[in-house]
Design a protein that fits this description.
Aspartate Aminotransferase, domain 1; globular; Aspartate Aminotransferase, domain 2; alpha/beta; seven-stranded mixed β-sheet; four-stranded antiparallel β-sheet; 2 domains; binds D-malate
């Protein structure tokens, strides 16, 4: 008898975005004439930068030659040319030294942030923010690290840290110890960004309690203030207690190409049953080599091209375009009296629903009346109730049109 993993049955609903997709499909079917504007899932809309396309083409040509053909990639996932570009441009440029063998190239930060928990015991206590990117929670539920979903909307055994207007959506460490903490900055879904002081408190907490910080920096390219930290490793002491995920998806339009990486520093460790220290890098490398066969060579060449002078300029313009969309949303909706957060160092606007409306109700009103898709805040956790997330990933024209339609749907 093939018994199933019962933990999957604890998951209280389908994954958020397919559920939204179903509702959007139903409205689209009932209103075939409607021009639906999708500001829901954070998927990029601009075409690939020319430098990226050129690199893809050149690598494809190379693969078609006897000398240039390549089969399986390196065990760590990353070719040296990409590892060195990452080290130089993402880290050395901000005074951070990262070694090649601390970088693991993969096909996405969703996968990396979801898979990282595998190298820890199921007894580990996990802390997440609320609201939270659902992947951190669901993968720990699947692994059996929680009990059932409670009436509060929280899984038993997991510690939720409310991210609220009062704390600027960047909660401080709790007073009790936990083993694993997921942090995301710039934040999905609230668009908030953690400042240096906040991250220093988290690093101090992790060191005090021997905890590990899983720092998801998939949106770092959207930080427009150079004084704000883009990496957890800008904080002294983080190498002993943190791992970091970065992605080419949002910064360079790779949601369809797939390339990301995790940094696991040599000093970061967990404990074995007898209390001995075990380097996390060793376990993650073992997992990576067993379960993954590297991102294809042409995609890694395309990722390398993101760091070329042309690639930096072109992808920088793409990020600036989305940030300008976010400004249009913030200003247009703000002038109409909506209360908004985020969207300055992130492609997401976190909007309070009008008149205390529930977030799924607000989602349905926006979809049904304005034909605009957002993401209900409650889908990211109970503390997201009363908010809706609006993504800036779309054309300027659609974003401006969405502002008009959202105002119309609420008579604002
Ligand atoms: C989102 O909309 O939250 C993101 O697209 C999810 C992701 O990047 O996986």
């Amino acid at each position: 008898m093939a018994r199933i993993n019962e933990n999957y049955r604890k998951l209280h609903a389908g994954y958020l975005f397919p559920e939204i997709g179903r509702r959007v499909a139903a409205v689209a079917e009932a209103n075939p004439e409607a021009k639906i504007i999708r500001l829901g899932i954070g998927d990029v809309t601009l075409p690939l930068a020319p430098a990226v396309v050129d690199a893809l083409r050149a690598a494809a040509d190379e693969m078609g030659t006897a000398d240039g053909f390549r089969g399986y990639g390196p065990d760590s996932g990353g070719y040296d040319f990409l590892l060195d570009a990452i080290r130089e441009h993402d880290y050395a440029s901000r005074g951070i030294e990262i070694a090649r063998d601390e970088i693991f190239v993969s096909d996405g930060s969703k996968q990396d942030s979801g898979n990282f928990q595998e190298i820890f015991d199921t007894s580990c206590r996990v802390a997440v923010t609320d609201p939270v990117y659902p992947v951190y929670v669901d993968t720990n539920v699947m692994a059996g690290r929680t009990g059932a979903m409670q009436e509060s909307g929280h899984y038993a055994g997991m510690l939720y840290l409310p991210a609220t207007e009062a704390n600027g959506f960047t909660p401080d460490p709790p007073s009790e110890p936990v083993d694993l903490v997921y942090l995301c900055s710039p934040n999905n879904p609230t668009g908030a960004v953690a400042d240096r002081d906040n991250l220093e408190r988290w690093v101090a907490y992790a060191r005090e309690h021997d905890a590990v910080l899983v720092f998801d920096a998939a949106y770092d390219a959207f930080i427009s203030d150079p004084a704000l930290p883009r990496s957890i490793f800008e904080i002294p002491g983080a190498r002993e207690c943190a791992v970091e995920m970065r992605s080419f998806s949002k910064r360079a339009g790779f949601t369809g190409l797939r390339c990301a990486y995790s940094v696991v520093p040599a000093e970061a460790s967990g404990r074995d049953a007898s209390g001995g220290r075990v380097p996390l890098r060793q376990l993650w490398a073992r997992r990576h080599a067993t379960k993954f066969n590297a991102v294809p060579y042409p995609i890694q060449r395309a990722a390398e091209a993101v760091y070329s002078p042309g690639g930096r300029k072109q992808t920088g313009e793409q990020v600036a375009y989305y940030l300008e969309n976010a400004r249009v949303l913030r200003e247009g909706l703000g002038e109409a009296g909506f209360t908004l957060f985020g969207g300055v160092h992130a492609p997401y606007i976190w909007m309070r629903t009008p008149t205390g409306m529930g977030s799924w109700e607000c989602f349905d009103r926006l979809l049904g009346e304005a034909h605009v898709v957002g993401t209900p805040g409650a889908g990211f956790g109970p503390a997201g109730e009363g908010y809706i997330r609006i993504s800036a990933f779309n054309s300027r024209e659609n974003v401006a049109e969405a502002v008009t339609r959202i105002r119309g749907a609420f008579g604002a």
